[in-house]
Amino acid sequence: MAEAAPGEIQAAGAVLWRARAGGTETALVHRPRYDDWSFPKGKSLPGEHVLLTAVREVEEETSVRVALGRRLGSQSYLAEGKPKRVEYWAARPVSPERFAPNDETDALAWLPLAEARERLSYPRDQAMLETFTAGPLDTAPVILLRHASAVAKKEWRRGGHADLARPLSDRGQAQAAVLAGLLGCFAPAQVISSAAERCLATITPYAERTGAPVTAEPAFTVDSASGHGGDDWAETPAARSRVTEIVTAARPAWWARSWRPTRSRSSCPVTGWSPAPGSAGIAAAPAPTSSTGCWCSRARSRRPWTGIRLACAAPSQPAPRLPKAYWPGSASSRCCSAEASRRPPT
């Protein structure tokens, strides 16, 4: 998801859905200003992350609080003569469905997918609905985080301190606070972390906000002072096994780690994605393939979170190896997530 171009309107929304005995239904809103039917969406506030935009705008237009699922992609078009890009996610309600008409939307309709396609006013929204139905509907987010900005390694070592105790910098603490809000856009999750202080401090604000306990995982703990950390660290069998357990459990989970395999050239066995040689950013992901049951997309966001990678893998697939996620060469914190799907009746 690229940064907004100069003059481009940034917006976000969601394909809000629910499962019913007769099949899947999606929510459409009617906007009296345009007399049209569309998915709930809206413009980002100045400096607002698009994940937060999506959750806020859906709630404002439908009166429903949501948990985001997989990213569906974006729409780009002219709105009143200005370029506009809208990012979309799948989403499920996590609050009572009590619609209250307002100035922007005066009606909410929950419709079966086929009826929703006919009701939608714009071909671009019909195409987004097709993207939604082409992939798994119900997903469990599994988000992999590298720690936020930490105190410089050389400075910390000169003081004779152990690397595992190296803390976040002031900037990193601010990033961790921002991260707590972003992770709150998804369903509540188990929290797993390296035992390194910088990793624990990165995820603690989210854990305190949700009341989730933090589990320190030895398999994800790296002590760079021992010569086994940093860019040259190789995943261990224990780490691969633990990641397999997390991903195939189809249960929401966040885990924080401290290594940054920027030189990795191996591909993710679930998605088939691999970094482009010499690339300075996250490579484009392959298109969805029903034969493999894997869905993968990428997203870039505004600083300090410049990359969010979403991948969906059906739990019936072979257990994945540890994905060697590609991180751009900045010290900024990144997050890479995989989603394990549970497809309900459509």
Helix-and-strand structural type: alpha/beta
Q: Percentage of helical residues?
A: 10-25%
Count, helices: 7
Give the C-level CATH assignment of the largest domain: Alpha Beta
Task: Give a short synopsis of this structure.
The protein is of the alpha/beta class and 346 residues long. The chain contains seven helices and 14 strands. A hairpin with a 4-residue loop joins β2 and β3.
What does this structure look like?
This protein has about 350 residues and is an alpha/beta fold. It folds into two domains: about 10-135, Nucleoside Triphosphate Pyrophosphohydrolase (Alpha-Beta Complex); about 140-340, 3-Layer(aba) Sandwich (Rossmann fold), CATH 3.40.50. It has seven helices and 14 strands. The strands form two sheets. Strands 1, 2, 3, 4, 5, 6 and 7 form a seven-stranded mixed beta sheet that branches. Strand 5 and strand 6 (about 80-95) form a beta hairpin. The longest helix is centred in the middle third of the chain and has 14 residues, at about 170-185. The two termini are about 30 Å apart. Residues about 225-230 and about 260-345 have low confidence and may be disordered.
Task: List descriptors.
346 residues, alpha/beta, Nucleoside Triphosphate Pyrophosphohydrolase, Rossmann fold, seven-stranded mixed beta sheet, 7 helices, 23% helix, disordered C terminus
